[in-house]
C-alpha cells in the first residue's frame, strides 16, 4: 500500500503570516497521523518562509517521544552544510534531496544527477552513515532513475508537477507513460519509487493506477487547501480513499 506522507509546509506558511503559534505544525501532524497518514514531510528552506528549523526539531522530538508504531519522518531539501547539520541532529527516516535554488518559489525540476555525480555520491554516503534512507527528486526521465542507482540512492521521487499540468490535456497518457518508464527503470535497478508535487484529489488515483508500486506520495499544497473545506482529518481520509481506489 502506498504511504501517504503529509507535507506541512503550507500549514507553516499560514502560521508564519503572523507572530502567533497557530495553526500549530505539530498539532496538524498529530491530526494527520490520527486520521491515518503514514508519514510527515517537511521542506525547510534557508529563508524559513515555510517550515522553520525549530519546527523540524519539534516534529522530530514529538515523533520519537509520542509514537511507538513507525511514523516515517521525511525531510526534503537542498543539501547545504546547514541542511546536512539539521538532518544529522534530527535523524529523519528519509532524506529527499531536491535541487532547489533558495530563490525558487517552489520545487520545479529534478536533479541532473550525472552533472553532479561525484558530490551527490558523497552526500548519499554521508546520509547512509546516519542510517537515513535517501531519495532523490527526479524528472520523468528514465536515465535519471539509472543515475540515481549509480549514486547509491535508495529511492527516486518522481517530480509530478508536469503530470499535474497535463492532467486535463490530450497528451496526458503520453506524459504518464514516461513516468511509468522511469518508475520501471527504478524498480529494475532495485530502487523504491516515491512521487510528489501538485498531486491532488483529481489526479492521484489515476497516477497510482498507472504505477501501482509507488511506495510513498508526499502531498501538501492541495491537501492543505482541501483541509480548509473538509478539515484536516476529512482531507486525509479523502486522500487515503483515493490511494485505496487505485487497485
Ligand atoms: C519537493 C517538492 O516538490 C515539495 O517539497 C514542494 O517543494 C513543496 O514545497 P512547498 O509547498 O514549500 O512549495
Ligand atoms: N515532495 C512533494 C511534497 O512534499 C508536496 O508537494 P505539494 O503537494 O505541496 O505540491
At CATH level 3, the topology is TIM Barrel
- The unreliable regions are none
Note the run of SSEs as H and E: EHHEHEHEHEHEHHEHEH
Query: Taking Cα atoms only, what radius of gyration do you get, to the nearest Å?
Result: 17 Å
Give the full name of the CATH homologous superfamily.
Aldolase class I
Helical fraction equals 40-55%
- Please outline the major beta sheet: 8 strands, parallel, barrel
Coarse morphology: globular
Bound molecule types:
1-deoxy-D-xylulose-5-phosphate, the ligand NCC(=O)COP(=O)(O)O
How far apart the termini lie comes to: 10 Å
- Number of individual domains: 1
What is the β-strand count?
Answer: 8
The proportion of strand residues reads 15-25%
Give the rounded overall mean pLDDT.
97
Q: Could you say which structural class the secondary elements and strand pairing correspond to? A: alpha/beta
Classified by CATH, the class is Alpha Beta
User: Largest sheet, order of strands side by side?
Assistant: 1-2-3-4-5-6-7-8
Put simply, the count of helices is 10
The CATH architecture name reads Alpha-Beta Barrel
Amino acid at each position: 500500500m502506498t504511504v501517504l506522507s503529509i507535507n506541512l509546509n503550507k500549514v507553516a506558511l499560514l502560521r508564519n503570516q503572523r507572530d502567533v503559534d497557530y495553526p500549530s505544525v505539530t498539532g496538524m501532524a498529530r491530526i494527520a497521523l490520527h486520521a491515518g497518514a503514514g508519514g510527515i514531510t517537511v521542506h525547510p528552506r534557508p529563508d524559513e518562509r515555510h517550515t522553520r528549523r525549530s519546527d523540524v526539531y519539534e516534529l522530530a522530538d514529538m515523533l520519537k517521544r509520542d509514537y511507538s508504531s513507525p511514523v516515517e519522518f521525511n525531510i526534503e531539501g537542498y543539501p547545504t552544510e546547514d541542511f546536512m547539520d539539521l538532518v544529522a541532529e534530527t535523524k529523519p527516516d528519509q532524506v529527499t534531496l531536491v535541487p532547489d535554488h533558495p530563490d525558487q518559489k517552489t520545487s520545479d525540476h529534478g536533479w541532473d544527477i550525472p552533472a553532479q555525480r561525484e558530490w551527490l555520491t558523497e552526500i548519499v554516503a554521508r546520509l547512509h552513515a546516519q542510517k537515513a534512507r535517501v531519495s532523490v527528486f527526479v524528472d520523468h526521465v528514465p536515465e535519471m532513475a539509472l543515475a540515481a542507482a549509480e549514486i547509491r540512492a535508495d529511492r527516486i521521487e518522481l517530480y509530478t508537477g508536469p503530470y499535474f499540468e497535463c492532467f486535463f490535456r490530450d497528451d496526458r497518457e503520453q506524459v504518464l507513460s514516461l513516468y511509468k518508464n522511469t518508475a520501471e527503470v527504478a524498480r529494475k535497478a532495485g530502487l523504491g519509487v516515491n512521487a510528489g508535487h501538485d498531486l491532488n484529489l483529481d489526479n492521484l488515483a489515476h497516477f497510482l493506477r498507472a504505477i501501482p508500486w509507488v511506495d510513498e506520495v508526499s502531498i501538501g499544497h492541495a491537501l492543505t487547501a482541501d483541509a480548509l473545506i473538509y478539515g484536516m482529518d476529512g482531507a486525509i481520509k479523502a486522500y487515503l480513499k483515493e490511494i485505496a481506489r487505485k487497485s
